[in-house]
């Protein structure tokens, strides 16, 4: 029994609530200020350019930069609330990994699985797990389709 008047679950629930609130309706101007000096990922191989360098205000009075800023703001506003998932991953000591599995129906994604692993799992173990889950899921989806 603990002497504290709250539980670990209470702490996680509050952290989840606060993380979710941070992602709600981000400040539009703050998005622009933050992105201005961030390097655009697709330019990294060529030495990297910031958004401000890639879309200079002088070129078009800021129209291209503002269009990108609006799109980024919209993506943030439309992002799924994964705060509960994120808080529990961190509390469990798991690290999100770049591995993903996705399944589509035509051009429309219907399932996306993201993975998080304990830091001590090797790359080979991660690969094997992801591959195994992907193969099993694909097999089940194929069998479900062939039962029609």
Strand and helix map with partners:
Elements: H1 8-23, H2 28-36, H3 51-54, H4 57-60, H5 63-77, H6 83-91, E1 95-105, E2 108-117, H7 123-146
Antiparallel strand pairs: 1-2
Helix pairs in contact: 1-6, 2-5
Strand content: 5-15%
How can the largest sheet be summarized? 2 strands, antiparallel
Global shape:
extended
Count all strands and give the number. Answer: 2
Spatial ordering of strands, largest sheet? 1-2
Structural class label: alpha+beta
Distance between the termini: 54 Å
Count of helices? 7
| Average pLDDT level | 90
Search tags:
148 residues; alpha+beta; two-stranded antiparallel sheet; 7 helices; 14% strand; extended
Brief summary:
The chain is built from seven helices and two strands; from the N terminus they run H-H-H-H-H-H-E-E-H. A two-stranded antiparallel ribbon has the order 1-2.
Plain-language structure description:
With 148 residues, the protein is α+β, with helices and mostly antiparallel strands. The chain contains seven helices and two strands, in the order H-H-H-H-H-H-E-E-H. It has helices spanning 8-23, 28-36, 51-54, 57-60, 63-77, 83-91, 123-146; strands at 95-105, 108-117. The chain has a two-stranded antiparallel sheet with strand order 1-2. Strand 1 (95-105) and strand 2 (108-117) form a beta hairpin. It starts with 7 loop residues before the first helix and ends with a helix.
